[in-house]
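EI: anyone free to look at a 465-residue chain?
SC: sure, send it
EI:
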Amino acid sequence: MLTAQEIALRFLDTKLQVHPEVVRYILENDEPDLIERIIAGVPEDTVVVSAKHIPGIRPTRDGTRFLLDPTVEVVSGNPGTSGPVNGTGDYLHYFRDRFSRLGGMIRGRVGAMPIEGLTKNTRYRQEECTVIGMVVDVSTTKNGHRIAEIEDSSASISVLFRKDRPVFADAEKIVHDEVIGVKGKLSNDGRLFFAEFLYRPDIRIDNTPFKSDKPGKAVLISDVHVGSNTFLEEAWNRFADWLSDSDYQYLLIAGDLVDGIGIYPGQDQELTIKNIYEQYDAFGAMLSDLPSRMKIIISPGNHDVVRGAEPQPVIPEAFTKKFPQNCMQVENPAVVNLQGVRVMMYHGRSIDDMIGLIPGASYEHSGLMMEEMLIRRHLAPAYGRRTPIAAGRTDRMIIDPIPEILHTGHVHIKGITTYRGVLGVNAGTWQSQTAFQKQMNVNPTPALAVVVDLQTLMPETFSFA
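SC: here you go
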């Protein structure tokens, strides 16, 4: 058996220094070819061989070691899930599925009757009742009240939310195509419903998130935008070095891996890489520099080379040939299970719509937008606006099951929130302020990574700017 001195000398023969932890590991594991396997796998610019260079071993911060065995399960959003839209018939199924599932969540908490049964039966006039419907239209009257037309499978009705009632604050945030329940009384002529309470699918107040029973940490980032002249390469390199010295098991990237081609007018003037294949090759090379022990989970965004309509399929294989083997691709949106902790990954394009529809909403408060998604149990409730939706036979934008973590991007501004046990994370971007953002007075928060401890669900933000 080799001595500690002989092990150190063997590394010195190849102009490498060796950490005592590595020497101790080699002494504990009497494997004849272990030293040579370690040396063969060390990058060329390495000076000191540390525990991170031992094949199959993950060093932890306190010096202990254990085998890397990251557990990842794709709950929804596996490659190939997003099929084509097969005609107008799918739209009917899509909205029926949305109404049935979200309406069922409300009905599970409050009793409700069909709208047609309410309007056609005069005995319900002036009696307090509850109905559930999808919002067809919503507007503000000349007197400042809020009025919404809702419909179920039987009929539709106009609902009035008076500005002098407590319910008005919730009514101001009603958006098109969300599913709501309203409790109140029907007018004498049966044409108007006076609302006193508003119900949404929401997350139960007693929701208890699952926490992993073993150590594990996930790094959350989004919006890398490789190929843009505002991509922060030096900051990324600091991030990559930091990951190499860490003990994290998972890296989740929520879309916009590259800047893309032809996404907006004049984009070619702001690109350092003007070939889409080369953009993804460069991104793949960046991922290859990260620790191979990590599981890297990738979903696309609106700048990536997939259809714009959500749900978006995975990036085609023709563009990912240089991605390392430890990468796992999922669709947008997707739910992945990390050691029992469910993470819903959604790039977040619908935030644009919600900001335009909800009073007081802004890009600076992306955390609040994630809360609004959770309240509605839907990632993109407003149909037919800036966020294109590929309507299939089921609505894959519904938030079901409830995740422990909602991971978004798109807005380039950090936002962290906790709503009824669900942690919402938007980690910002790896791109400095663009010319368009400057015109719009949008100030990004670049070069950030959010690390979530899977045992506590506590987030910690690290800056590489």
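EI: The domain at 110-199 is CATH 2.40.50.140 (OB fold (Dihydrolipoamide Acetyltransferase, E2P)).
SC: 👍
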